[in-house]
Design brief:
alpha/beta; Rossmann fold; about 20% strand
Length: about 350
């Protein structure tokens, strides 16, 4: 089997899911070509597991001070260029296209009659999952941005739908409880100076801030780190809590590690606003809409919650693909959610770890 795997590289969560899928595809003997769009190639990092990957401009989101700017996004992404890339992407010789909300590969597959499967968080919004900030424009984007013949959405709960558990790397064999005074910070859509001004008012904690403009900065309570996947995972498992935007990937890793979460969703971006809403519903995190010191201090004094152990979702998806996708996505979801283990209270267990109702079959 030969697959073209398209990844929307605007956010690191999409790339993290691809990193999780890559070794499972290799183990299954699947030949994969990787396509990343939406980010300047010079800003990609930790790409060793994608040998020979290629890049195209695709669609890039324009953000400013924690808000999605729709006008600037449209100006930055000329449709003529996008259409040219779709027409020129040659899919001859491929049996299947996988897309993680990547439009060039998905639309090229539609034009050339190659089956395309969507794998990613955005596809969960085709089902009755928590949504906030929704409107007709958002629904049209979710439906038509990456046309696929089958969609595998991932989320923190199944919501009695064919939605899979998070697609993330497994935790270390011996995870540590973490230092409650050490906090990991990753807010790529915010102005770093504003984040630092917010955090520097807090004493008694050490904030490890991962950002694009680190330049070796440090202060009494903040240390800045350049993007590095391994250093980031080490920081995640030694910290006591995580502050971030409301991207799905980081929140999933934090939940699996048993780290408390404080999120500030990207303003105007329905997916992140909905993620913040779901995290609060499920008891996994606290959401803020601005740099609020009172909420920050209350959150810092909260205990971490127990970790949730997710199954090897990547292996399950690859087995499903190699088997010819004969099982309905709901059957795959049933199998995978049966392997989710969480040390939670009875109330949490009913909300988070409940099995999918057989009635939906």
């Amino acid at each position: 089997m030969r697959i073209l795997y398209g990844v929307q590289a605007t956010g690191n969560g999409h790339i993290t899911r691809a990193r999780t899928m890559a070794p499972e595809l290799r183990r299954a003997g699947v030949e994969v070509d990787w396509l990343f769009t939406g980010r300047d190639p010079a800003r990609l990092f930790g790409m060793e597991c994608f040998p020979g990957f290629r890049t195209l401009p695709g669609v890039t989101l324009k953000t400013d001070h924690g808000h999605l700017r729709y006008g600037k996004t449209l100006l930055r992404n000329p449709l003529a260029r996008l259409w040219r890339d779709i027409r020129q992407l040659d899919l001859r010789g491929y049996d299947l296209v996988i897309t993680d909300f990547e439009p060039v590969s998905a639309w090229a597959a539609r034009r050339q009659g190659v089956p395309a499967v969507g794998v990613g968080h955005q596809y969960a919004f085709r089902y009755p999952v928590p949504m906030a900030g929704d409107n007709l424009g958002n629904r049209l984007v979710l439906q038509y941005f990456t046309p696929v013949v089958q969609a595998l959405g991932v989320h923190w709960h199944h919501y009695d739908s064919p939605v899979l558990p998070p697609l993330i790397e497994p935790p270390p064999d011996e995870p540590t409880p973490g230092d409650p005074q050490r906090i990991l910070v990753y807010m790529p859509f915010e102005d770093t100076s504003e984040v630092l001004a917010w955090l520097q008012r807090v004493e008694g904690y050490r904030f490890e801030v991962f950002c694009a403009d680190a330049r070796g900065y440090s202060s009494a309570n903040c240390t800045l780190h350049s993007y590095d996947r391994e250093a980031f995972r080490e920081a995640l498992y030694r910290c006591g809590g995580v502050i971030g935007n409301a991207g799905f990937g980081l929140a999933s890793e934090s939940i699996q590690a048993g780290r408390k979460l404080l999120v500030k969703p990207l303003g105007g971006q329905m997916e992140q606003v909905s993620n913040a809403y779901a995290l609060e519903q499920l008891g996994y995190g606290t959401a803020i809409s601005q740099f609020d010191n009172r909420t920050l201090l209350r959150w810092l004094h909260k205990p971490s919650r127990p970790p949730v152990r997710y199954p090897n979702v990547a292996a399950g998806i690859v087995e499903w693909l190699v088997d010819g996708r004969r099982t309905a996505p709901l059957g795959l979801a049933l199998d995978l959610w049966g392997d989710v283990h969480a040390s939670v209270s009875k109330t949490q267990r009913s909300a988070v770890a409940s099995p999918i109702s057989k009635a939906v079959l």
